[in-house]
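Fold sample X.
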Amino acid sequence: MELLIIRHGQSEADLLGVHEGRADFPLTELGKEQAKRMAEYVAIHYPPDIILSSPLKRAQSTAFILQKTVGCELVEDPNLMEFNNGVLAGLSREVAAAKYPLPTNGRPAHIPIQDGESELDFRFRAERVFHKIIYNYREFDRVAVVSHGGLISNLLKAFLRQSPTNEFAFATGDTGFHLIEIKNERRIVKFLNNQEHLKAAEWGKNE
């Protein structure tokens, strides 16, 4: 079983300099183009049998574009949403820093942000949804998961059986994707954060 884990395209929040998280901003026009190019590339090289997606607009729209290109089933799962950043969602970074400053030495992993979730809550949510995916969709050869940077990082930690709190993180660019595999009880990383579809040469060929 392979998991193709995909981050959404550029969202309007990326241009506004705000905390996104659960704030539900749509894709920009560039984000839609990124998603289209990702979908065309994935359809040729790594076509999924089913797509699972966060219901937040930026991921949902990216998943719809992929579904339209590939033609397989799409299932939305709220557990694939980004970190619940509570009161920070949609706030500019300046306003957030003034109104809700971080505690000295940072917020402990077990303490949730106001109206949101803690880092541990987030990590365990990713752990649950990872196990749900590999159990409920085990009959599929390749499952695409369209989600968000923070959730994707935690899914990869779950795949690698990393401890709930550690200093490691996995970056994912706009519409970047990772391919991992579970085969005969082995967990195989095939590649991380592939953005071949966004290379200048590739864009030029399709203009």
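Fold sample Y, listed below.
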Amino acid sequence: MELWNAISSLPPSPTRFYDEMFSGQAVRPHYERVQALLSRLSFSEREARQAAMNRRLLEEGITFTLAQADQPDALERTIPFDFLPRILTAEEWDVIERGVSQRVRALNAFLRDVYHDQNIFKDGLIPRRMVLGNRYFRTEMMRMSVPAGTYITASGIDLIRDEQGRFFVLEDNLRSPSGFSYIYKSRSIMTHDFPEMYFSYPVRGLDRSLGAFRSALRHLAPGGKSDPVIALLTPGSFNSAYFEHAFLAQQMGLELVEGRDLVCRDHKIYIRSLNGLKRVDVLYRRIDDDFLDPLAFRPDSLLGVAGLMNAYRFGNVAIANAPGTGVADDKAIYSFVPEMIRYYLNEKPILANVPTYLMSRPEEREYVLERLDQMVVKETALSGGYGMLIGPSSTERERERFAEKIRDNPDNYIAQPTIQLSTAPVVLDGKLVSRHIDLRVFAISDGPNVHVLPGGLTRVAMREGSLVVNSSQGGGCKDTWVLAR
């Protein structure tokens, strides 16, 4: 009933979405200079500038692999980039920054608890079976001490803004969130190709953030080593986010390695090189738990390192993010995060969740099944826009199929009321059109300290009317500016 009360307390939807740049016919004050600069450009000038930016993305190899249902082979392409920035005021960012930091601290405390004392189960806040039966829960991590007590080094928290302009958390991404590199490349494009717009605003810089990221990884090194060897473990060049892996390794001075480049000797991890073996102290992994170590997880994995988990257990190497972290970003566990904040931090949540129905609860399941045309249904273990039903744009047949799936495996699904994501203008063929957006905010945890990158990645649903912003589903991006006070 608490969930239903939260739903019913939401104000009725207005006829228009919240627009980031316009309030009715008026331009919001912090967008006035954007509007002034834009009004000086003709359609052809806008189109030419947009084309030039996208050409630079292609020339620099800034790509993402796009999977399409009607094509068996994945397509490698640039992510559509829009030169109109998304601007957040200092006051708006203050709420986001404090809310994201609070959320990450609570999620880290939750992971520490479920892999050790499990007090949250004993106190009845979360059903034990929901966690222990989760596909991302790793019994191998039970009672294991992780370096600096940090399970979540890098996280991406997805936010949306509703019809009234309020921010809600849509998802937590805690395993190996992608998108860091696109923040930096978006900023580089704007400063290089549209400097008259960028430098007309007091935009908070990103310079400190990669340093904070490297510092957080260095902090994990066994024995407090002052100059540890840090490696980024990638699945390889065919991975959809390989550009990002190479970018981060280059920018932070990390060794870029694949599983075949590593070997375990005497419960220590080494890089094979022409000069012999080089010991690794910290491994920033961009592969899933299942593939980390064929001796501990999937025996058919060719991406990981045999013996890695034993080296981790012996305290000879740190892994970021820690194995087993995925249990905290499961979409069903997400619904309990506000309670985690109260429980572990004794604080009131700063950022609210989107109200969420658990299909494992019979009364909520029946409520949703009667209203599928109004709901967004998600498979709890999937991400990237896969395994979803968007009720208002679905067909009756699609809803029938999802209803069958929900009844067959209710634990695998959650549902949320359709939130009308905020919109922002984008330039297509020189014309301004409105598209839905969200915001992925990145946070770096260094022990108890959380650094939130100022701005984050604004993702754009490039198809008219679409609410799916994921890059893997054809979404684009914008540079996101946080204004200094």
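Sample Y note: The longest strand covers residues 431-446.
Also: The chain is about 30% helix and 25% strand.
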